[in-house]
Specification:
Layout (H helix, E strand, L loop, with lengths): L19 E5 L6 H12 L4 E5 L2 H11 L5 E3 L5 E3 L3 H25 L4 E5 L6 E5 L3 E5 L2 E5 L5 E6 L2 H8 L3 E5 L2 E2 L5 E2 L3 H11 L4 E6 L17 E2 L13 H11 L5 E6 L5 H6 L3 E4 L7
Parallel strand pairs: 1-2, 1-13, 2-10, 5-10, 13-15, 14-16
Antiparallel strand pairs: 3-4, 6-9, 7-8, 11-12, 15-16
Helix pairs in contact: 2-3, 5-6
């Protein structure tokens, strides 16, 4: 079998038409992703880069003495507790550290990049989750002071303008609510909702593992394709549940949705060639 990383840029299944939305996790080495985004930009292929930054936020929280907490939902999903102090830390980390590093990396590769967050131009509007269920020591409790948000609307106008001018939009949380408050929203969900709003041809969720793994400790246990039934039981655990849920939402309208590794050479092309896990709400990738 030929190596998908050696194929020409346009040979990736979704590269020939439409925008591709690529999400990179905050814990992944961005170098290979930035290399390929730059390659795509030089070829005139429209690409939107969405990023998280949990690892940077954790480091900053530790330096500032802000306590870090994890919310475990009754279904086993893990998420960050975003108290009022943590939303400030997240905003500082994402917009003051992670995004500038990505933009400067693209600039060094000859790419004109534009940084945006969900609150810019009402790009991502969310509503605050007023009560979140969390399992603590076997008991379910309600958290009422969290600053996490549920995405209500995505307006891709600013992203489209950037693409029309030949720029690469670099998008991240936080989002804004109707009253102008900042809210933490899941970056995978931002990428999924933005891909749908842009009528993207593909959504590529890049992370630090090779896809959805049946055994998180065994890279060879990659599941080639997941659907809604994989969210039952404990087949998909922890943070990966967020990615699968977001991918399933996007797959309703986006033809190709995949979760794959970020650290390999030409990771976008590899992902679109099947070197990851396809996410499909129904049926198989054809």
């Amino acid at each position: 079998m030929s190596d998908p990383a050696q194929a020409p840029v346009g040979d990736a299944p979704a590269a020939a038409g439409g925008v591709i939305v690529v999400k990179i996790g905050g814990g992944a080495d961005p170098g290979p992703v930035l290399d390929e985004v730059a390659e795509r930009a030089a070829a005139g292929l429209p690409t939107v880069l969405v990023h998280g930054g949990g690892a940077a936020a954790d480091r900053l929280a530790d330096r500032l003495g802000v306590r870090r907490e994890v919310i475990e939902s009754p279904d086993g999903t893990h998420s960050r507790r975003t108290c009022p102090a943590m939303i400030t830390v997240l905003t500082m980390a994402l917009l003051g550290q992670v995004k500038p590093q990505l933009i400067s990396g693209l600039t060094a590769r000859g790419v004109r990049a534009v940084g945006l967050c969900g609150a810019d131009g009402a790009l991502v509007t969310a509503s605050r989750k007023t009560a979140i269920r969390s399992v603590r020591e076997g008991r379910t409790v309600l958290i009422r002071d969290d600053r996490s948000g549920r995405i209500e609307h995505v307006d891709p106008t600013l992203v489209r303008l950037a693409l029309e001018r030949g720029n690469v939009p670099v998008v991240s949380p936080p989002a804004g609510d109707a009253a102008g408050n900042l809210l933490n929203v899941d970056a995978d969900e931002v990428a999924a909702r933005l891909a749908a709003a842009l009528d993207a041809s593909a959504l590529v969720l890049l992370t630090d593992v090779a896809g959805v793994l049946a055994d998180p400790g065994d890279p060879s246990s990659r599941i080639p394709e997941v659907g809604p039934h994989h969210l039952t039981g404990d087949v998909v655990r922890g943070r990966m549940r967020h990615k699968v849920r977001a991918g399933l939402r996007a797959s309703r309208t986006v033809a190709l949705v995949t979760i794959a590794a970020a650290h390999r050479e030409r990771p976008i092309r590899r992902a679109l060639a099947g070197d990851g896990t396809w996410v499909r709400e129904g049926g198989r990738h054809g």
